[in-house]
Amino acid sequence: MEIWINPACSKCRSAISLLDAEGADYTVRRYLEDVPTADEIRAVLDRLGLEPWDITRTQEADAKELGLKEWPRDAGTRDRWIGALAAHPKLIQRPIITADDGTAVVARTEDAVRDALGLS
């Protein structure tokens, strides 16, 4: 299991605390320092069953500078969105847990973390 985090994020710290409390075996990826490639983002999106705009933090300054709210959200622009996430990792919603069983969750709630652990 791997968790993508920003250590400054309270949701990420909460997710880590719950993983630790449950004795989970996981690795931490500080995705702002160890930036995921476009292919890694595609793979996580496939595991999540989501589109790139679904995991984009559109309120971030980078998103506003890029005008992301105005970008079309369709198959034709999917790669453009993924490219923006790879170039501006602050835009990636966090934390994201990729489980060993091939699933993934955006773990912003305790329930989502429990889902990743198979506890719900």
Automatic annotation (TrEMBL):
Alphabetical keyword list: Oxidoreductase
Q: Which residues form a coiled coil?
A: none
The yes or no answer to whether the keyword Kinase is present is no
> By its UniProt entry, which SUPFAM superfamilies does this protein fall under?
Thioredoxin-like
Question: Which InterPro entries does the record cross-reference, listed alphabetically?
Answer: Arsenate_reductase, Arsenate_reductase-like, Thioredoxin-like_sf
Instruction: Describe the family membership recorded for this protein in Swiss-Prot or TrEMBL.
Output: Belongs to the ArsC family.
Please state what the protein is called: Arsenate reductase family protein
Organism equals: Streptomyces carpinensis
